[in-house]
């Protein structure tokens, strides 16, 4: 029986990978330490590749991947994969769009609450032996308006949870209708409505040409003074220089960022601002989400090598 070589180049749940490990026609290689050069050197011997968001599957890598037939993305965003190059070479790209929705929505709510109550800043002060109750006065979420830009899987889950916090919710999404918004108990608005009305704005779009720098200088100008921003979607949706200026000028009171344009981010100027809280791209980092996406992507790889149709080519 022909054996297919599968490379896994980002950390994935072992439990989720078990079906692949047990498949007699798959030879699985887990190599999390290869740098770009090593990846380029070795990719030619693999039939399949599974990545999360860390490995950059560039055109150059794809062009070297002479045996590659399928790329599995254990997660939603495929912005780290040169899709056009893959298509040109007849390589199928599959993602796992549902498995981390809940975790990403929960992380967004955690960031929203931590931002509103300045929890990370207060915790840092305590760790430095400072008992300071005056500097960390927050705001309530109840009766505030949350603006959601992008009401897909995660945006919708965030909307339900925000209603549970007794927030008003207004959302903008080109595919949202008034009827759907009404059914969800939220308000339907244009992008400008969201920018103008919201006390907190959270973005949940994919990173596309159309959404790059969707929140830019002009957009910040339209917002309410004191607005707070959350990004647990993709770096690049927010123009980071514009956000920095808006915080320094006090137009924006705070921001919670799980993602930035270049990752890993350590010395970014936004991280130096007290008003900014951040996590290192942890939206999908739960046991459950990682197991879900690993199972979904494993099943697709197995289906593909068994000659069965994959779910989302
Ligand atoms: P989704 O495809 O279900 O939803 C995206 C929504 O954005 C769609 O409803 C679409 O109509 C809307 N949209 C597209 N262009 C728009 C525009 N110009 N303005 C407003 N809305 C627009 O995706 P999802 O699963 O909800 O994921 C949302 C984002 O979260 C993606 O960027 C994804 O990569 C990211 N994500 C991040 C993490 C993390 O670890 N931080 C985890 C999971 C997903
Ligand atoms: C995703 O797009 O699924 C997320 O960014 C999560 C991840 O890749 O870890």
TrEMBL record:
It catalyses: (2R)-3-phosphoglycerate + NAD(+) = 3-phosphooxypyruvate + NADH + H(+); (R)-2-hydroxyglutarate + NAD(+) = 2-oxoglutarate + NADH + H(+). Its EC number is 1.1.1.95. Keywords: Amino-acid biosynthesis, NAD, Oxidoreductase, Serine biosynthesis. It comes from the Bacteria. Transmembrane segments: none annotated. This is D-3-phosphoglycerate dehydrogenase. Pathway: Amino-acid biosynthesis; L-serine biosynthesis; L-serine from 3-phospho-D-glycerate: step 1/3. Catalyzes the reversible oxidation of 3-phospho-D-glycerate to 3-phosphonooxypyruvate, the first step of the phosphorylated L-serine biosynthesis pathway. Also catalyzes the reversible oxidation of 2-hydroxyglutarate to 2-oxoglutarate. GO terms for molecular function: phosphoglycerate dehydrogenase activity. Belongs to the D-isomer specific 2-hydroxyacid dehydrogenase family. The lineage of its organism: Bacteria, Bacillati, Bacillota, Bacilli, Bacillales.
